[in-house]
Amino acid sequence: MRLRRPRSLSGLILVGLALVALPLMVGVLWALYNLDRLAEQSARLVVTGVSVAEQNRLLAEQERRTVLERESRALAEMGDYLGDELTDLFAAGAEMDMDFDCK
Hints:
Layout lengths: L8 H69 L4 H21 L1
């Protein structure tokens, strides 16, 4: 099977243009495909980052509550009169935090 040759100069130019443009079009389509995948990956990464930040904030709050409760109980065990007040303050603060969490 023989390939047909262009019979005119304009036909030859069109064949050359097609041979040059085809790899460029393939490259552009491949870049668009990869850009779409990168955008999806970035969106998932942002969602994961927000989730981790929220979990970190909740963990820090829990740690703060635990330390405050531990210190309050230690003062109460030592018989310090401030221990009961700190326990009451802790309970009031915990109730306020629960009120904010429900909203």
